Amino acid sequence: MVLPAILYIALLLGVPIILAVYYSLSDITTGGIAAKFVGLANFEALFSRPDFLRAVGNTLLITTTTLAGVLVLATIQAELLLRDFRGKWIVRFLILLPWTAPASLSVIAWLWMLDSTFSPLDWLLRAMGLMGKQGDLFGPFPNAYWLGRSGLALASIVLVNIWRMLPLGTVIILAGLNGVPRDIAEQAQIDGAGYFRRLFQIVFPILYPVFGVTILFTFVFTFSDIVTVYILTRGGPANSTQVLTTLAFFTGVQGGALGQGAAAALFLLPVLAAVSVIILAAIRRREI
């Protein structure tokens, strides 16, 4: 009964992976049909490129900072949404809205919010007296140029990624909190345990598998994402925000070096597989 689904998944995932491996070992280009076997030459060329090494570092930096932000903020949001208050369902809907919206449309909205001329964030900072004069937090510039300065561009990408991934993390952790046995927490409260002691010594240990699932989904989606960087910065300024997915696209599709682009894309596969195996193994050990 499950054979059609297995065949569909195998074809959907297996064929692109086989083609990527084949392309990465050849000198194929987007403008030609002939492909000559070159072995590991594409991988050697990639590791000799400074922009590839920087893309690896940026990918890991953006993924880890996004993961940390989502894990902390999603836990806080889930803990607040667990309580009863008026309009809770409306608040839950608004929190889920970034996840339900198409990724490209939501990132385009952020592109306008971070615009170098018309950014509403710049207007707010100037109104608060944090920008526009010498000695201000963002300097004497009339605009922050969020996507034009390397440090601010990376911070902007992390901010947008956290905004996009936060609803999913909140829903997963909220489901875990709803599954925590109430009698255990109530018994600890009767025994005199305070709020933070109950949270860190009772609730969080029970939620370790749930945190593992949140970490896994956030890591995979962020590590393999191309939409945020492609729409906001296209890897700029001066490759300072280039990540593996955009580098593979620009090298293989726009640059025409399909073999090197496939090699860059394949670099994602072992990292994602290793992280997934480690997290799933840790979850399984915790459950046992």
From TrEMBL:
Entry's Gene3D superfamilies?
MetI-like
Annotated ABC transmembrane type-1 domain ranges read: 56-279
Gene Ontology cellular component list: plasma membrane
Q: Give me any GO biological process, just one.
A: transmembrane transport
Does the UniProt entry include the keyword Repeat?
no
Report which superkingdom the organism of origin falls in. Bacteria
Q: Which residues cross the membrane?
A: 6-25, 60-82, 89-113, 206-232, 262-283
Pfam families in alphabetical order = BPD_transp_1
Q: How does it sit in the membrane?
A: Multi-pass membrane protein
Asked whether the keyword Transport is assigned, the reply is yes
Q: Which residues form a coiled coil?
A: none
Identify the stretch annotated as signal peptide in this record: none
Q: Which family does it belong to?
A: Belongs to the binding-protein-dependent transport system permease family.
Q: What is this protein called?
A: Sugar ABC transporter permease
Naturally occurring in which organism (per UniProt): Allopusillimonas soli
